């Protein structure tokens, strides 16, 4: 248990973290990965380069410091991060390494302001926080391995089918190489894939939402090929999967994880909103609702640039046609001439509150959404403006956790 003095010191550093949090975590990653390059086999290199991992860690450290006298308050965030850690293979022996370089980074960035007393307090506080993570993750590791069809670490799966869904999205159907049962999952969860790419020094791990309902003898992921653009390079793993991985190839997969999951206990109308490849967990939820809750009212809304990059349109249209409880709407940012001629969309431009209110009867519903961060900020803002209750708003980040409100935790 932390002493009152240690708690007082940690809480007094909260304003400092607000001002220097990202600088500290940036220095932390630089130092740790320089001295422990083997950890590059775990961390997403792209998120490092874009600064998303640093921001996510800074926000987590800030939250822990602000609640150091009541760590139970951050348990939801701990569980969310723990799901990521389980899927990546983070183990207890990694925590002392993280703690060592976090303290070094605090000292490097704050200089003389980081007194011996402050560093000692943070050493004690970090151990308390790490103990919470290690305890939660130990239980989750046991559950993942002991469940029917479960396993530890990464398991070999064969690509039994590869299907092009659009110009940029391809689905991969995966069955275990050993022919044994596979773990079930909750709609919205993801798996991690570990790939060694020829010419790359380190392995790459990427997390992909499962894009079909549970209960099958396969897992399906639907991967967007991330092409090079003005603000980011081409995606190493997604490009490799699209261009080089074929039916019959073997991939290493983690057990399903994730806390962005469909609540099947409710009977409220449900609204699924997706942008781009953010539709993958939504499709899993939609398919599950169609199979398990065929009476529940479902509104499925998808936004894409146009039909050339719109995956699984025919599948969703068929469900909406066959099932009276499912309605489907499409928003195209820049429809093609063929789209305009066919009028195969419901709105041009972007999803906004005014349009949502014309197609969703009431804000009294459960809302789930996923997509690019600017898209999610827009949806979140619209729902809050409409008065949707916070507990009815559910969303998933592809990658490190970010902020959807106008005010980020860190300056």
UniProtKB/TrEMBL annotation:
FAD-binding FR-type domain span:
152-263
Its domain of life reads Bacteria
Query: How and how many cofactors are bound, per the record note?
Result: Binds 1 FAD per subunit.
Q: Where does heme b bind?
A: 85
GO MF annotations in UniProt? nitric oxide dioxygenase NAD(P)H activity
Give the matching Gene3D superfamilies: Globins, Nucleotide-binding domain of ferredoxin-NADP reductase (FNR) module, Translation factors
> Which chain positions carry the site (Influences the redox potential of the prosthetic heme and FAD groups)?
84, 396
| Chain positions covered by the region annotation Reductase | 149-411
Q: Which PANTHER family match?
A: FLAVOHEMOPROTEIN
Q: What is this protein called?
A: Flavohemoprotein
Q: Which organism is it from?
A: Aneurinibacillus thermoaerophilus
């Amino acid at each position: 248990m932390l002493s009152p003095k240690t708690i007082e010191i940690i809480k007094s550093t909260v304003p400092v973290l607000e001002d220097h949090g990202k600088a500290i975590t940036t220095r932390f990653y630089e130092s740790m990965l320089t001295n422990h390059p083997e950890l590059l086999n775990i961390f997403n290199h792209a998120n490092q380069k874009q600064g998303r991992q640093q921001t996510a860690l800074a926000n987590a450290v800030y939250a822990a410091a602000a609640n150091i006298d009541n760590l139970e308050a951050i348990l939801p965030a701990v569980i969310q991060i723990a799901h990521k850690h389980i899927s990546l293979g983070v183990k207890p022996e990694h925590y002392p390494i993280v703690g060592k370089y976090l303290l070094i980074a605090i000292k490097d960035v704050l200089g003389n302001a980081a007194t011996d007393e402050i560093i000692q307090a943070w050493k004690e506080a970090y151990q308390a926080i790490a103990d919470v993570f290690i305890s939660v993750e130990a239980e989750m590791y046991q559950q993942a391995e002991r469940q029917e069809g479960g396993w530890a670490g990464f398991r070999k799966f064969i690509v039994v089918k590869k299907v092009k869904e659009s110009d940029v999205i391809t689905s991969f159907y995966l069955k275990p190489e050993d022919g044994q049962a596979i773990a079930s999952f909750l709609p919205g969860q993801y798996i991690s894939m570990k790939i060694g790419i020829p010419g790359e020094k380190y392995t790459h791990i990427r997390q992909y939402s499962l894009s079909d309902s549970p209960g099958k003898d396969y897992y399906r992921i639907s991967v967007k090929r991330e092409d090079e653009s003005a603000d980011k390079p081409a995606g190493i793993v997604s490009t490799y999967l699209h261009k080089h991985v074929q039916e019959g190839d073997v991939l290493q997969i983690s057990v399903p994880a994730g806390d962005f999951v469909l609540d099947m206990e409710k009977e409220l109308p449900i609204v699924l909103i997706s942008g781009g490849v953010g539709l993958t967990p939504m499709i899993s939820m939609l398919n599950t609702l169609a199979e398990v809750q065929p009476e529940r009212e479902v509104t499925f809304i998808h936004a894409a640039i146009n039909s050339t990059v719109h995956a699984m349109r025919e599948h969703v249209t068929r469900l909406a046609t066959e099932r009276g409880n499912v309605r489907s709407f499409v928003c195209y940012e820049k429809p093609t001439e063929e789209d305009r001629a066919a009028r195969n969309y419901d709105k041009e431009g972007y999803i906004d509150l005014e349009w949502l209110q014309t197609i969703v009867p009431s804000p009294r519903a459960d809302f789930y959404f996923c997509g690019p961060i600017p898209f999610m900020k827009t949806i979140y803002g619209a729902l809050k403006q409409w008065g949707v209750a916070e507990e009815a708003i559910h969303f998933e980040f592809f990658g490190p956790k970010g902020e959807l409100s106008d005010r980020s935790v860190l300056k």
